[in-house]
Amino acid sequence: MENKGKLGLLSICLLGVNAIVGTGIFLLPGKAAKLVGVSSIGIILFDAVLVILIALCFAEAGGLFKKNGGPYVYAKEAFGEFVGFEVGFMKWAIMIIAWAAMAVGFPTALGSVFPAAAEPLWRSVIAVAILLFLGLMNIAGVRISKIVNNVITIGKLVPLIFFILLGIFFIKGDNFQPMQSVGALTTTSFGAAALLIFYAFTGFESIAVAAEDMDNPEKNVPLAIVLVISGVSVFYILIQVVAIGILGDSLTVSEAPIADAAAKFLGPVAKAVVTTGTLVSIGGINVASSFLAPRSAVALADDGFLPKFVTKRNKKDVPYIAVILTTVLTALVCLTGSFSKLAAISVVSRFAQYIPTCLAILVFRKRGMKGSFRIPGVYVVSLLAVGISLWLLYNSSLDKIIFGLGGLVVGAVFYVIMKLTQKKAN
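Below the sequence we write its predicted structure tokens.
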């Protein structure tokens, strides 16, 4: 019998779709095609399998702990305070990098109708202006999260569904031949494309950590994960197929492939509709990030791992120091590269949460801990998830690894400083 106080299967599936489908799929099809051409369709399937493996590990971990914190809690309980702190610190770093990617994504998408917006100088100016505006809005205590969430959902799904349903009739079979501007598929290009496309799947953790709030989690958690990831994968594959089928080799040079493809089969009006939807979606996610990212800094300060002044609040009950600090750091990060580069760095940094969680499950099993959901074949699932993740990192470029995982080094320094400070205080 269904528990009315818990989330049912349909509710958790909708939550998952909303958490996953975002900016990435609007802007990445062209970048993926540039790396591996038509093979980008298969790489979406590869990433879907990896996401399911990692999400199952998160699901079991989520069913073991009632307290909030996610990967931070799992790592701390399994491997101790230092590893837990590093994972928690990386959560803040990840949110900063992701927000920077979203901020840069806005002028990148805008560039499809105003080309100057995508030029490096104006791209940086617009991105930083967005960050400063949202930071000030946040400090002023303006809260529009419910409206933003609804607008994001409608703004991102409608143009994508419109694109698939109409675009499928304009596909040209000849465009699925090997692209002339794309070299032969190699391990390096495969890994780079898989890492980039993986960004479009980030957010899947929302399904996994909701086990405690779900009705009949033993049955519904794995089912929800498979249904959501499979559904999103089919959605992404259709988008990639339509984009390739319409644009062909020209997809590899498109900064806003969905909008460009729509323009090709329905003209400038269709391009304007898709671009508007893209900007609404990216803008909305920027607003959400401006609220959530500073709160990760506050959580670290509450636990004594950042200076206490970071938690200071103004008359509107806004942690203004955390907002200022996070906004400034995000602005600096967004000046370091393009949307695709920041998206790849964001994925690299996320593995600092994914890998410890996948390994923590094995520790909890050895301790005999039991929660609301248990993975069948846990050792195969966990080690396969870790192995594929490490392979992707191995095939990433050195600069992305340095930027993506550099937060671990910074975090270690903060940890030592705060521990020494606490020791002197005692």
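The mean pLDDT is 86.
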